[in-house]
C-alpha cells in the first residue's frame, strides 16, 4: 500500500487531537435474563476544540463470554457528574452529582439508579454534610459494598455555603495539596451511606485522625469494615504536593463502623497508598497496597505489600520483578487499578499492576498464592513497540489499553486461559490513516525512541530532541498528537531519550542522577543526539529541543552548554533555578533531593551552602551562552514550577539580547493540558518553527 505524506500539520493535529481516550473502566456481569456476557463501563475523555473544554463521557460495551466482540455501544456525556460506579452484581449505579446553584455555589447529590428498570431509587442531597466530592485516584473513587447496600466516597469535610461558619473558620489559611488540587480543598474525609436505612445520609467513617486527609476508601470483609489511606501533614503543618509523589507520609487503616475500632495495617515508616481488599481462594482475607521510602526521590522503586485485616504480613512483599537478576527493572507504580484482582469463582488468586519495564509500560500479574510474576505484554502483538495498561478486571476477564507512538488507543479483553483479543476496532479517522508511514525505532545503547516518516528515513533532516520531565519518569509508547503530527508532516526526526534517572531500569540507574542533574542527564541527551546523527542522518547543527518541567530544565541547559547545535527551543514550565524554586514550589523537597542534598522540612529556604550548590546545578547562570531562538510557555496556575521560574529564563535571555518570547495560559497548571493551552501551544510551535527552524 502506498502512503502519501500529509503536508498540512494543522489539519492533522486537529484530527488526532479530537479522538476519545478511555481513562478508566469497570466490568460487570450482564443482566442474568440475557444470554450472559459482560458490560464494560468505559470513562472516556475527548477534547472539544470549539467549546475549549474536555468532555467526559460514559461508553457502555457488551462483551460476550468467549470473545471480545462488542455487540453494542452507547455513549452518554457526563454533565455535572463527579464520579459514578456500578455495584458488583451489575444491578445498580451510583452517581455523584455537583450542580451549580443560583448563589454561585454547588448543590451535591448522591443518586442511585436501578439498571434493570431504569428507575431512580434514591436522590440524596448531601450539600449540608460536606464540601466538594473528590474523585481522583489520589483521594479515591466511589465504592460499593459487596452486598450492594453500602457506599463509600471521599469529600471535603468543609461544608459549602456554610453561613453559620465563624469568621476564623471562613477565612483561616489551610495548606493545599498542591498541583492539580484546588486551594479550596481543605480536609478530605471518607463518607459512608447505608442504603438499607429508612433515610440514608452520609456519615464520616471516623472522627479520629483529625489532622490527616483521608481517601482511597475500600470495603473490607463486610459493609461495616472500611479501609482507607490517611495522608499526614508535615511537622510544620505544610502539605507537600502529593500528585505523582509516592514518598509522602501516610498510613493505611481499617475501621469497624459499629465499634469505631481502628487497626493500623501499614508500617508508619513507609509511604503507602492504593489499598485493595480481596478474599483469596485459599480462604485468606488480605489487603494489597503499595509502599515507598519516605522522602528521597518522588518515584523510587516501590514495594507491593499484602497484609491480613489484623495487620499481619501475608505472602511476598514484591520489590523486584526478576528476583535473581542484577538488572531487575524494579517496580514503578503510581496507583493500582481501581479493580485489579483476577481469580476464580471460589476466590481471588492474583492481581494486575502497571509498571515501567525498560522504555515501555507493561502489565504484570502477581500471584498471591505462589508469589509468581507474569509479564502480560508477552502475550501481545507488537509488544516491543507498544505500552500496556490495565484498566479493570472483574476476576474472570481483564480489560487493557494498548498504546503506541503511531497508532490510536486499542482496547483488549483478556479472558482467563486465553490470549488477549481486540475489543473493538481502533478509532481511525483520516488523521490516524496518515500515521501509516510513521516509523518507530528504539536504540538500546542510549535508551532512546526515534520516530520519523517513512519518506524521510534515508534523508538528512532536522532533529527534535524531547527529554521527558520528572526526571524520575520515562518516555514510553503513547500517542502524542503534537509529536506525531510534527514527525509526519515536517520531515524531522524526533528523538526521546530515557536518560539516567529514568524509571524502568532499576534503582541504581534512577538514583545515579541525584546530585548530578544538569550533567549526567545532559550528557545522555547529547549521546542520543550523536546516535541520531549517525544512525538516522540528522543534521548535526540543526536541532530543536522541546521539553517541559525537568525536560525544560534540560532544554535550558542544552541550549546553553551546546549552543552551536540548536536553532530553536520550545520550553514549557521549566525549572530554571533550583534554589528559588525551593521557596516557590509545592514540592520543595524535590529541589534538595535532585541536588543531592537532604531536605529539612523545618526550614523554609535553603542555607547559603545549599543555595550555592543548587545554583551551580541550575541553568540560570548560563543564559548568556544561549543562541537558540526560545519560545517559553507557562501555566498561570502552575503550583509545581510556578511561572516566576519561566520568567527568570525570559528576562535572563532578554537581558543578554537573545531571541525569546513567552506565552502564559490562564486556567491551566503544570501539565499545560487545557484545550486552549494545548491547541494554542501547538499553533505557536508551528509558527516558531516556520520562523526559526
UniProtKB/TrEMBL annotation:
It is found in: Cytoplasm. The keyword Cytoplasm applies. It catalyses: Cleavage of an N-acetyl or N-formyl amino acid from the N-terminus of a polypeptide. Its EC number is 3.4.19.1. Residues 166-260 form the Acylamino-acid-releasing enzyme N-terminal domain. InterPro entries: AARE_N, AB_hydrolase_fold, Peptidase_S9_cat. Residues 485-693 form the Peptidase S9 prolyl oligopeptidase catalytic domain. Pfam families: APEH_N, Peptidase_S9. GO terms for cellular component: cytoplasm. GO terms for molecular function: omega peptidase activity; serine-type endopeptidase activity. One of its GO terms (biological process) is proteolysis. Keywords: Cytoplasm, Hydrolase. Homotetramer. Belongs to the peptidase S9C family. This is acylaminoacyl-peptidase. It comes from Wallemia hederae.
Amino acid at each position: 500500500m502506498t502512503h502519501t505524506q500529509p503536508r498540512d500539520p494543522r489539519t492533522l493535529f486537529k484530527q488526532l487531537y479530537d479522538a476519545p481516550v478511555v481513562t478508566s473502566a469497570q466490568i460487570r456481569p450482564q443482566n442474568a435474563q440475557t444470554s450472559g456476557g459482560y458490560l464494560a463501563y468505559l470513562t472516556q475523555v475527548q477534547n472539544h476544540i470549539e467549546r475549549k473544554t474536555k468532555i467526559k463521557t460514559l461508553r457502555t460495551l457488551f462483551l460476550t463470554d468467549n470473545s471480545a466482540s462488542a455487540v453494542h455501544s452507547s455513549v452518554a456525556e457526563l454533565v455535572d457528574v463527579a464520579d459514578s460506579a456500578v455495584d458488583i452484581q451489575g444491578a445498580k449505579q451510583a452517581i455523584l452529582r455537583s450542580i451549580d446553584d443560583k448563589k454561585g455555589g454547588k448543590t451535591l447529590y448522591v443518586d442511585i439508579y436501578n439498571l434493570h428498570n431504569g428507575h431512580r431509587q434514591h436522590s440524596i442531597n448531601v450539600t449540608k454534610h460536606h464540601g466538594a466530592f473528590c474523585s481522583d485516584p489520589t483521594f479515591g473513587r466511589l465504592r460499593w459494598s459487596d452486598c450492594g447496600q453500602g457506599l463509600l466516597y471521599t469529600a471535603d469535610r468543609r461544608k459549602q455555603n456554610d453561613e453559620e461558619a465563624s469568621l476564623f473558620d471562613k477565612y483561616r489559611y489551610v495548606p493545599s495539596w498542591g498541583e492539580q488540587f484546588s486551594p479550596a480543598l481543605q480536609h478530605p474525609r471518607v463518607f459512608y451511606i447505608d442504603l438499607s436505612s429508612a433515610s440514608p445520609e452520609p456519615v464520616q467513617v471516623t472522627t479520629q485522625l483529625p489532622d490527616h486527609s483521608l481517601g482511597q476508601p475500600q470495603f473490607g470483609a463486610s459493609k461495616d469494615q472500611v479501609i482507607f489511606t490517611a495522608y499526614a501533614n508535615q511537622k510544620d503543618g505544610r502539605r507537600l504536593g502529593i500528585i505523582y509523589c509516592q514518598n509522602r507520609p501516610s498510613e493505611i487503616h481499617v475501621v469497624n463502623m459499629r465499634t469505631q475500632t481502628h487497626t493500623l495495617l501499614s508500617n508508619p515508616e513507609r509511604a503507602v497508598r492504593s489499598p485493595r481488599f480481596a478474599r483469596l481462594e485459599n480462604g485468606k482475607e488480605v489487603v494489597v497496597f503499595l509502599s515507598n521510602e519516605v522522602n528521597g526521590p518522588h518515584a523510587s522503586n516501590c514495594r507491593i505489600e499484602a497484609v491480613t485485616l489484623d495487620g499481619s504480613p501475608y505472602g511476598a512483599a514484591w520489590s523486584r520483578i526478576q528476583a535473581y537478576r542484577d538488572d531487575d527493572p524494579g517496580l514503578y507504580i503510581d496507583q493500582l487499578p481501581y479493580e485489579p484482582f483476577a481469580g476464580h469463582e471460589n476466590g481471588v488468586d492474583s492481581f494486575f499492576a502497571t509498571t515501567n519495564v525498560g522504555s515501555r509500560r507493561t502489565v504484570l500479574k502477581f500471584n498471591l498464592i505462589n508469589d509468581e510474576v507474569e509479564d502480560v505484554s508477552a502475550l501481545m502483538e507488537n509488544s516491543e513497540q507498544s505500552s500496556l495498561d490495565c484498566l479493570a478486571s472483574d476476576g474472570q476477564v481483564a480489560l487493557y489499553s494498548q498504546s503506541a507512538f503511531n497508532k490510536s488507543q486499542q482496547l483488549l479483553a483478556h479472558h482467563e486461559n486465553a490470549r488477549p483479543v481486540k475489543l473493538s476496532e481502533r478509532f481511525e479517522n483520516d488523521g490516524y490513516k496518515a500515521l501509516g508511514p510513521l516509523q518507530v525505532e528504539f536504540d538500546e545503547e542510549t535508551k532512546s525512541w526515534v520516530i520519523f516518516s517513512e519518506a524521510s528515513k534515508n534523508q538528512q533532516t532536522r532533529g527534535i530532541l524531547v527529554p521527558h520531565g520528572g526526571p524520575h519518569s520515562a518516555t514510553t509508547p503513547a500517542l502524542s498528537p503534537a509529536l506525531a503530527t510534527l514527525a509526519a508532516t515536517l520531515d524531522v526526526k524526533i528523538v526521546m531519550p530515557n536518560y539516567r534517572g529514568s524509571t524502568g531500569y532499576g534503582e541504581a540507574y534512577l538514583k545515579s542522577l541525584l546530585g548530578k542533574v544538569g550533567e549526567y542527564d545532559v550528557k545522555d541527551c547529547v549521546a542520543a543526539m550523536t546516535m541520531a546523527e549517525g544512525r538516522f542522518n540528522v543534521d548535526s547543527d540543526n536541532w530543536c529541543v522541546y521539553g517541559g518541567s525537568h525536560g525544560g530544565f534540560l532544554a535550558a541547559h542544552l541550549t546553553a552548554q551546546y549552543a552551536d547545535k540548536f536553532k530553536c527551543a520550545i520550553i514549557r514550565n521549566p525549572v530554571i533555578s533550583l534554589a528559588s524554586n525551593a521557596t516557590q514550589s509545592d514540592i520543595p523537597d524535590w529541589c534538595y533531593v535532585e541536588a543531592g542534598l537532604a531536605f529539612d522540612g523545618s526550614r523554609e529556604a535553603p542555607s547559603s551552602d545549599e543555595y550555592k550548590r543548587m545554583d551551580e546545578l541550575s541553568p540560570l547562570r548560563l543564559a548568556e551562552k544561549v543562541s537558540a531562538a526560545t519560545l517559553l510557555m507557562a501555566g498561570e496556575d502552575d503550583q509545581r514550577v510556578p511561572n516566576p521560574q519561566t520568567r527568570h529564563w525570559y528576562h535572563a535571555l532578554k537581558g543578554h539580547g537573545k531571541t525569546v518570547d513567552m506565552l502564559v495560559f490562564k486556567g491551566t497548571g503544570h501539565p499545560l493540558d487545557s484545550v486552549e493551552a494545548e491547541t494554542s501551544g501547538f499553533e505557536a510551535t508551528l509558527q516558531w518553527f516556520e520562523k526559526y527552524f
